[in-house]
Amino acid sequence: MTHPMPDRSQPPVRLRRRAAFALCAMLAAVPARAADWLMATAEPRVVPGQRFEVVLIGPGDAAQWPPRLAARIELPGSGAQVELELAAIGALEPGARQRHYWADWPGEITGVVGLTLPGQPGAHLLLEARASAPATHATANTETTAPRRDPQIEAIAPRAVLPVAAKPVAPTAISFHEPMYFLIGGKDPVSARFQFSFKYRIFDDHGVVAETVPIVRGLYFGFTQTSLWDLESASKPFRDSSFRPTLFYRWLASDPAERGSLGLSLGYEHESNGKEDTPSRSIDTLFVRAEGRYVLPSGTYIGIAPKLWTYLDREDNPDIARYRGYGELGLRIGRDDGLMLSSLIRRGTSGKTGVQLDLSYPLRTSVFSGVGTFVHLQAFKGYGETLLEYDIKRDTQLRIGVSLVR
């Protein structure tokens, strides 16, 4: 008796069931993988100290494409990571499945490194950072083909070098406001003059208030302190300190990264030396300040910053307008990576003037955006070097030192 031969052209039932189950599992896993963001770039080479751009691809309905994203630069060998914030380019289109982002590449980071988004395993790039990138057809036509950047979004360079296990740092709302420096010199007496200044954006981009009323994103609180420290007297006292808390709104009419840009700030400022009785000085003002900047083809830029104010309170010094007036003019010319000359000019209603000149040059480049080390020379002549001595004229005071923000 012969037995029929099994049909080997068809897999057994159990094998077919396993294959079907595996196929279903693979299909079920596809949406989960598709939900990850992918990162791409047209140019894998970046230039230290210059801008670079990437494209993020993903489901537009789920991603929401935030205007800022925290990213990481992974340094090979050392295991260190650098936190970087990416800023969106252009307006968000409804239902878009991709968006362009940009940032400034840190000047100190060179070689082949990785760029990743925390929590998005598909968003990973290998980039080569070197002194110069070869010109390509894509880069040659950047001005005509690149999307326009959102003027309200400012990219922030890396803030810290972290170990591999560290959690990503959330974008900070604190930034620099006015120049920060420490200088020594002058005469009658020899003194140190120093200033530090910060501003804080009150409403975060992703907060409930900012998403409901987007216009509040331009509201800031600022604080600046300027002090004169007597280094010649035996007890080394502080001659005077000026404290200036400020509440203001800042509006950018154009992108600061473009050749020509314009910004406008208006708000309330209190200035006081923090003393009581006879040496007390304080004023309250409402102000408006414009900031214009034009970059020449050589990379040198010219800046102008007029500021006007009206006094709300000047009881401690009722005649201060005769020496300080109702406005000041700031001028600046130079390069961000080179020599910079700036001036601040005030003129009172009685013709009394105060003029300050600042000349600085970078000593090194820093990983922190807007921060460096600069050799700084300052000259002041006239009235108003301190709030306490607003009506005392000073001969030319020359001081030299370093600045962190200029």
Write the layout of secondary structure elements.
Layout lengths: L12 H22 L3 E3 L4 E2 L4 E7 L2 H4 L4 E7 L6 E8 L9 E7 L6 E7 L2 E10 L7 H4 L1 H4 L15 E2 L11 E3 L3 E6 L5 E11 L6 H5 L6 E12 L7 E15 L7 E13 L9 E14 L5 E13 L7 H4 L2 E8 L5 E8 L5 E12 L8 E11 L9 E13 L1
Parallel strand pairs: 2-8
Antiparallel strand pairs: 1-3, 3-6, 4-5, 4-7, 5-6, 5-9, 7-8, 10-12, 11-12, 11-22, 12-13, 13-14, 14-15, 15-16, 16-17, 17-18, 18-19, 19-20, 20-21, 21-22
Can you walk through the features of this model?
This protein is mostly beta strands. It has 2 domains: 38-162, Immunoglobulin-like (Sandwich), CATH 2.60.40; 174-405, Outer membrane phospholipase (ompla), Chain C (Beta Barrel). It is 11% helix and 47% strand. The protein has helices spanning 13-34, 60-63, 137-140, 142-145, 208-212, 321-324; strands at 38-40, 45-46, 51-57, 68-74, 81-88, 98-104, 111-117, 120-129, 161-162, 174-176, 180-185, 191-201, 219-230, 238-252, 260-272, 282-295, 301-313, 327-334, 340-347, 353-364, 373-383, 393-405. The strands form 2 sheets. It has a 12-stranded antiparallel barrel with strand order 11-12-13-14-15-16-17-18-19-20-21-22. Residues 1-35 and 133-171 have low confidence and may be disordered.
